[in-house]
Design goal:
Blueprint: H1 5-15, H2 23-37, H3 54-64, H4 66-82, E1 88-93, E2 98-102, H5 110-113, H6 124-127, H7 131-138, E3 142-145, E4 157-165, E5 171-180, H8 190-211, E6 216-221, E7 233-237, E8 243-246, H9 248-254, H10 274-284, E9 288-291, E10 297-303, H11 333-346, E11 352-355, H12 362-372, E12 380-384, H13 390-398, E13 399-400, E14 413-414, H14 416-419, E15 424-428, H15 435-447, E16 449-450, E17 459-460, E18 464-469, H16 473-479, H17 484-490, E19 493-496, H18 506-521, H19 529-537, H20 543-557, H21 570-573, H22 583-586, H23 591-594, H24 601-609, H25 614-621, H26 625-634
Parallel strand pairs: 11-18, 11-19, 12-15, 15-18
Antiparallel strand pairs: 1-2, 1-5, 3-4, 4-5, 6-7, 6-10, 7-8, 9-10, 13-14, 16-17
This protein binds adenosine-5'-triphosphate (ATP).
C-alpha cells in the first residue's frame, strides 16, 4: 500500500537529511527540511496561499520594471507550445509573487482555484515546497511534481520553474510552467523542464542585450551558424575592451576562474590574444574565433553600441538601478542623505520607523530597505493597521489556532508576523493602532515570539519590523493614545521623508513616474516644458501619490506628442494662488511679492545668480517655491532648460 504524503515527508524530516540519489528529488527533500527546520511549517497545517492586493501587485510589477515587458514577450512565444499540452505559464518576482499568467484566467477556472493565477505569493517560507518558491530558494531550474509539494492541498500541481537573472547575476524573476493532474512521475516533466530553461535563457539574454544596448556586445557560440541569434555566452564591453556585464552562460564559464567575477576584467584576461582579436572584430565586424585561457574555443561576433538618440524633450528611459534605494530620489540633498542612511541601516538588525506625510513614499522606502537588506530573498509582508477593523487586527497580526472562533478557518490562520518570519513586516499607519494592541505588539517585539489567539504554544520569530505613520506620534504620546515605550522600541532608527513640495528633484520624479506610467498605458513618455512648469507651481498635498495620479490622467489624454498643459487635470493647475481656501495655507506673502511686479529684472538677476535653482531663490526670499514659479509665470520668465 502507498504511504500517505505526510508520512513520506515525515520520514525524510526524521532522518534530518536529503537522502535521495537523483538530483531533482534531492532538491525537493532539501526543501522539505528547510520548510520544517527553517520556516517552522508542518505538512498537516496548511496556512493557504498569501495574496497581493491590486496596489501591491502594481508596485511589484513596477519593481521588476522593463524586465517584465521582455518576459511577457517571451511568455507569449512560449505559451502556444505548451497550451495544447495542458500547461499555463506564469511569471513571478524574486519573492514568489505571480505578476503575469497566461492560460485559463477565468476566476473560477481550476487553475485559478489552485492558486495558479496573478497575485498569489508562492514563497517557500509561507507555502512550503513548490515550483516557484523552491526555485528561488535553490536559485536553479527545478520541477515540483505533485507529491513533491509540502502541503497536501497542492498535490495536484506539477510546476517547473527557472530563475531569470538580471545582468548582475541576481534572480530578478522566475518563469514557471504549471499543469494540473499530470500523470506519471517527475521524469515525465522533462520536456517542461527543457522548455522552461530554454525560454528563461531567451528572456534573460534579450534583457541583457537591451540593458547593454549602448555597449559593445560580444556573442560567443560553439556554432558559427548560431552565434548571431543564439549565442551561448554574451559579454558587454566598454570602449576599452573591459567587461561591464556577462550573461548567465558567461558567468558560469568564467566566474569560477576569475576571482571576483568576470566583470571588471579586460578581455585579454579571458581569451588568448583577446585584445587584438576583439580589436580585429571591431574593425571588420565579421565573425572571428576566440579561445579562452582554458582552451575552450568559440565563434565570436561583435555588435556595435546603439548610442542613445533621444529627442530633447524625451524622457530618458535608462534608469540604472544600483539598488532599490537608488530609485527613490534624484538629486534632492535631503533624500540623498536619507537613502544613504537607509542603506546603512538596511544591513543592521534593527527596527525602523518611517515618518512622513501621506503619499510621500513611506511604503516604497520600507520595501526598498527590505530589498537592500540581507533579508531581500525572504518575505516582505505589509499590513495597514488603519485599514483593518479593530476586531481583526489582532488575528491578522498574530494568527489564531484551529477552532478558536465560530466562522473562522477550520485549520486556524497563520498571522502576518509568522508569514514574515525571516523577512520584514511592514506595519503602516501604526499611529492608528488601538492601545491594547500596542501592548501586545510591544510584548511580541520584546520577546520575539508570537502566541496565536487560542493557542498556548508561542512561535519564535526572526522578523524585522518597519513601521510607518503620517501622524505626529510625539503628540499622540503626549495625549496618551500612543505608548511611549512602544515608540522607543519601534524607532530603533527614525527616517523622515520630506513632503514632495520640499524636494528639489521634482523633475527627476516626473520623469521617473512618466516612464513607468507610460509603459503601462503604451503612451509616449514625454512632457512639454510648459506642462512641466505647471507641475512646478502646484503644492502637492497628496505628495508622490498625487503626482502619479495627475501624470496617469494626463498620459491617458495625451496624444503622440506627449503631455501638454491642457492634458493636466484642473486639480494640478490650481496653484495655491487661485485655489479657493488653500491660498493662505501654502503661500506666505513675503519679500518676493513685495518686489515690484512690473519689472522682472530683479527676479531674473536673482535666478541667474542662483543658476535657476528656484528652491534656492525661494529660500533666500523666504517664500514658498510656488510663489516664485507664479511670479515667473506672471512675468513670462522661462528657465533656460524649458526654452525651445
Ligand atoms: N521614489 C518614487 N518613485 C516613484 N513612485 C513613487 C516613489 N515613492 C512613492 N511613489 C509612489 O507614490 C505612491 C505612494 O507611495 P507610498 O504608498 O509608499 O506612500 P505612503 O507614504 O506609504 O502613503 P500612505 O501614508 O498613504 O500610506 C505609490 O503609488 C508609489 O508607487
Amino acid at each position: 500500500m502507498t504511504q500517505p504524503h505526510s508520512q513520506i515527508i515525515r520520514r525524510v524530516l526524521d532522518t534530518g537529511q536529503a537522502v535521495a540519489q537523483e538530483q531533482g528529488e534531492r532538491l525537493i527533500q532539501q526543501s522539505w527540511l528547510r520548510c520544517a527546520g527553517d520556516h517552522g511549517l508542518a505538512p498537516g497545517r496548511n496556512p493557504g496561499i498569501p495574496e497581493l492586493d491590486a496596489a501591491q501587485l502594481r508596485e511589484r510589477r513596477e519593481r521588476v520594471g522593463h524586465y517584465l515587458d521582455v518576459a511577457r514577450a517571451g511568455m507569449h512565444q512560449l505559451y502556444p507550445h505548451i497550451a495544447p499540452l495542458g500547461y499555463i505559464t506564469m511569471l513571478a518576482d524574486s519573492q514568489g509573487a505571480t505578476l503575469e499568467c497566461l492560460g485559463d484566467t477565468r476566476a473560477d477556472s481550476p487553475f485559478a482555484t489552485a492558486g495558479l493565477r496573478t497575485g498569489t505569493v508562492w514563497n517557500e517560507a509561507a507555502v512550503g515546497t513548490n515550483g516557484i518558491g523552491t526555485c528561488i530558494a535553490e536559485q536553479r531550474t527545478l520541477t515540483c511534481h505533485r507529491d513533491d509539494h509540502f502541503y497536501a492541498g497542492n498535490l495536484d500541481l506539477s510546476c517547473t520553474a527557472a530563475p531569470l537573472r538580471d545582468p548582475q547575476g541576481r534572480v530578478a524573476a522566475v518563469l514557471d510552467i504549471s499543469a494540473l493532474s499530470m500523470p506519471g512521475a517527475r521524469d515525465s516533466q522533462h520536456l517542461a523542464r527543457h522548455l522552461t530553461s530554454l525560454y528563461a535563457r531567451l528572456i534573460e539574454d534579450s534583457y541583457f542585450g537591451h540593458h547593454f544596448r549602448d555597449r559593445w556586445l560580444l556573442r560567443l557560440s560553439r556554432s558559427a551558424a548560431l552565434v548571431d541569434h543564439h549565442a551561448d555566452l554574451m559579454l558587454a564591453l566598454d570602449d576599452d575592451g573591459c567587461v561591464v556585464g556577462a550573461n548567465t552562460g558567461a558567468r558560469r564559464l568564467f566566474d569560477p576562474h576569475a576571482e571576483r567575477g568576470v566583470v571588471g576584467h579586460g578581455i585579454g584576461a579571458l581569451f588568448r590574444d583577446g585584445r587584438d582579436r576583439v580589436h580585429a572584430l571591431r574593425q571588420a565586424e565579421s565573425l572571428g574565433r576566440l579561445t579562452t585561457w582554458h582552451d575552450a574555443d568559440f565563434h565570436a561576433a561583435l555588435t556595435q553600441p546603439r548610442r542613445a538618440r533621444a529627442a530633447a524633450t524625451r524622457v530618458p528611459i535608462a534608469s540604472h538601478r544600483a539598488d532599490a534605494l537608488h530609485t527613490m530620489a534624484g538629486d534632492d540633498p535631503r533624500m540623498m542623505a536619507l537613502t544613504d542612511q537607509a542603506r546603512r541601516l538596511a544591513a543592521k538588525p534593527i527596527d525602523l520607523l518611517v515618518q512622513g506625510e501621506t503619499g510621500c513614499g513611506k511604503e516604497v522606502l520600507a520595501r526598498a530597505i527590505h530589498a537592500t537588506s540581507p533579508r531581500a530573498n525572504q518575505p516582505f509582508v505589509a499590513i495597514n493597521c488603519a485599514a483593518l477593523p479593530e476586531s481583526l487586527i489582532e488575528s491578522e497580526l498574530f494568527g489564531y489556532a484551529a477552532g478558536t472562533f465560530t466562522g473562522a478557518r477550520r485549520d486556524g490562520m497563520t498571522g502576518r508576523f509568522v508569514q514574515a518570519d525571516g523577512g520584514t513586516l511592514f506595519l503602516d499607519e501604526i499611529g492608528d493602532m488601538p492601545l491594547d494592541l500596542q501592548t501586545r505588539l510591544l510584548r511580541v517585539l520584546a520577546e520575539r515570539e508570537v502566541l496565536p489567539l487560542g493557542s498556548d504554544t508561542p512561535i519564535a520569530l526572526d522578523v524585522r519590523v518597519i513601521t510607518a505613520t503620517h501622524r505626529d506620534i510625539e503628540a499622540r504620546i503626549a495625549a496618551g493614545t500612543f505608548r511611549a515605550d512602544l515608540y522607543y522600541r519601534l524607532a530603533g532608527g527614525t527616517l523622515t521623508l520630506p513632503a514632495l513640495r520640499e524636494r528639489t528633484d521634482l523633475d527627476w520624479l516626473i520623469d521617473r513616474v512618466i516612464v513607468t506610467e507610460a509603459r503601462a498605458l503604451a503612451a509616449p513618455a514625454s512632457i512639454t516644458a510648459e506642462a512641466r512648469a505647471v507641475l512646478h507651481t502646484h503644492d502637492w498635498p497628496g505628495n508622490i501619490r498625487e503626482l502619479r495620479n495627475v501624470l496617469r490622467f494626463a498620459l491617458a489624454l495625451a496624444d503622440e506628442h506627449g503631455i501638454t498643459a491642457n492634458d493636466l487635470p484642473n486639480s494640478a493647475r490650481d496653484t495655491a494662488a487661485n485655489a479657493p481656501g488653500t491660498a493662505t495655507s501654502s503661500v506666505s506673502p513675503g519679500p518676493a511679492d513685495a518686489e515690484p511686479d512690473s519689472s522682472h529684472a530683479p527676479l531674473i538677476a536673482r535666478l541667474r545668480r542662483c543658476q535657476w535653482n528656484v528652491t534656492q531663490v525661494a529660500r533666500e526670499l523666504g517664500v514658498a517655491r510656488s510663489t516664485i514659479y507664479r511670479r515667473m509665470a506672471r512675468l513670462d520668465i522661462v528657465a533656460p532648460k524649458y526654452r525651445h
